[in-house]
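Hi L.,

As promised, Flagellar assembly factor FliW:
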Amino acid sequence: MTAPVRTPHAAVTFVTPPPGFAPHVRFALDDVLGADGLFALRAEDDPDIRLFVVDSTVYVPDYAPEVHTEDLDAIGAAEPDDVLVLVVATIDGGSPVVNLMAPVLVGRESGLASQVILDGDDWPLRARLGSLAS
């Protein structure tokens, strides 16, 4: 995947609602000031609905999930380099964890997104960020 993209405000449209967020499909992807690669993903029609995501190239540089062609097609991307790979972040036991089993794929040109569940068990559901340092 390519270098991280800073985006002060970008519209993201999910091809299907992200799990737990139906019926919402249109979200704003906003930078969290002072934290490169950390974003708030907010439902455009209800800004109280949000989750935090991180750019995997910044926080999990060795993360290389296999992305299927049909996932790329769904978001209008021709190849994996056309995709911004975000992972959902939360706090667990006082430290940040990320979900590497279900990344959010965003087409860099289209703005279309999809949260996909990866095949197999190679990637953890709750990975502590500090333990992922290269």
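Residues 42 and 50 are 4 Å apart (CA to CA).

Thanks again for sending the construct details.

K.
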